[in-house]
DNA sequence: AAACAGGCCTAAA
DNA sequence: TTTAGGCCTGTT
């Protein structure tokens, strides 16, 4: 991968896998939206950006400094996903899944935002998850004017910690509201230190996250995979249960994919969901 | 109209 | 250790 700054954008060339649609719509994030011209605008890590593909290059708004400071890591650009697909093609099914999902990258997202978003995701569908998250940001985040539009950052846990369930009522997120507040307070008062968890073990992270009400195996694994950078975390939801039942059976163990199990999970999930859509 | 949607919690075997 | 029912809300 090479990059160079020009005219308010950074051009990425000589890339391995990087499909914007698959990366942003494979279910790992909720705040990147496709525009009429095929580009994507989103807010992440406290700033707004637009990404577009032109030929073999990807263009990201901002300076080279911003790219080095934020986006290089956010888009996991130090990892070669074409190589990973090869490693994960351990059987015929995984060969098909990785080919179908070629272009997916696992994002290294903000820890609190990821935890909070996946608390909201439980027993919910993607359009409604996105609506609730956007309302949360519009109500409590910082306004950003970008490219002629108005956007909002994801509110820090500290800002939510002092709110009440009544304050969250406009979100219409139902029984998840107290879960959000519990988690926000735990982060704000240091009971849950996600930065510390990131440098600890998977087991410690699981135990700490599951101490909070409303966080079980699935939500904890999503937070660990998508924000603590542990690519061996393996979230299992209803779609993954189907995929596993159809292709592996009862005594499936994600450890067959080693420290890339979480990446394997994302290929399986994306492939499975494509079959369940009309 | 009833069932379902990217779970989690509690109670009960 | 596993299983059933309930939970807010919006959509089909």
Summarize the structure.
The protein has 278 residues and is α+β, with helices and mostly antiparallel strands.
Word description of this protein:
The protein is of the alpha+beta class and 278 residues long. 47% of the residues lie in helices and 14% in strands. It has 14 helices and 8 strands. Strands 1-2-6-5-4-3 form a 6-stranded antiparallel beta sheet. A two-stranded antiparallel sheet has the order 7-8. β5 and β6 form a beta hairpin. α4 crosses α14 and α13 crosses α14. The radius of gyration is 19 Å and the shape is globular. The model has no long low-confidence stretch (mean pLDDT 97). The structure holds a DNA duplex (13 and 12 nucleotides).
Morphology = globular
**Poorly predicted residue ranges:** none
Mean pLDDT: 97
Rg from alpha-carbon coordinates: 19 Å
How many DSSP helices?
14
| Portion in helices | 40-55%
Spatial order of the strands in the main sheet? 1-2-6-5-4-3
> Strand share of the residues?
5-15%
**Major β-sheet, in short?**
6 strands, antiparallel
Any chance you could write out the topology, listing elements then pairs?
Blueprint: E1 2-6, E2 9-13, H1 20-25, E3 32-34, E4 40-44, E5 47-54, E6 57-61, H2 64-74, H3 81-88, H4 92-100, H5 111-121, H6 126-140, E7 143-146, E8 149-152, H7 157-161, H8 165-168, H9 177-188, H10 194-198, H11 202-210, H12 217-227, H13 238-247, H14 261-275
Antiparallel strand pairs: 1-2, 2-6, 3-4, 4-5, 5-6, 7-8
The protein binds a DNA duplex (13 and 12 nucleotides) through residues 27, 118-119, 121-129, 131, 172-177, 179, 213-219, 222, 235, 237-240, 269, 273.
């Amino acid at each position: 991968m090479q990059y160079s700054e020009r005219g308010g954008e950074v051009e990425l060339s000589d890339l391995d896998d990087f499909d914007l649609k698959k990366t942003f719509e494979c279910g790992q994030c909720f705040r990147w939206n496709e525009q009429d011209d095929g580009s994507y605008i989103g807010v992440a890590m406290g700033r707004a950006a637009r990404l577009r593909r032109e030929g073999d290059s990807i263009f990201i708004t901002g300076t080279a400094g911003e790219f080095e400071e934020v986006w290089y890591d956010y888009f996991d650009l130090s990892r070669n996903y074409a190589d990973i697909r090869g490693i994960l093609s351990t059987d015929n099914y995984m060969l098909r899944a990785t080919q179908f999902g070629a272009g997916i990258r696992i994002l290294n997202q903000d820890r609190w935002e990821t935890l909070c978003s996946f608390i909201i995701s439980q027993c919910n569908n993607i359009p409604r998850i996105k609506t609730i998250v956007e309302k949360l940001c519009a109500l409590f985040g910082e306004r950003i004017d970008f490219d002629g539009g108005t956007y909002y950052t994801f509110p820090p846990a500290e800002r939510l910690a002092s709110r009440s369930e009544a304050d969250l009522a406009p979100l219409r997120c139902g029984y998840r509201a107290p879960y959000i507040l519990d988690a926000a307070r735990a982060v704000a008062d240091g009971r849950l230190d996600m930065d510390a968890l990131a440098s600890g073990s998977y087991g410690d992270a699981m135990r700490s996250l599951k101490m909070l009400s409303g966080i079980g195996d699935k939500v904890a694994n999503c937070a660990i995979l998508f924000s603590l950078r542990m690519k061996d975390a393996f979230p299992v939801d209803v779609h993954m249960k189907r995929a596993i039942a159809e292709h592996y059976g009862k005594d499936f163990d994600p450890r067959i994919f080693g420290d890339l199990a979480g990446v394997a999970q994302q290929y399986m999930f994306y492939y499975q969901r494509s079959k369940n859509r009309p």
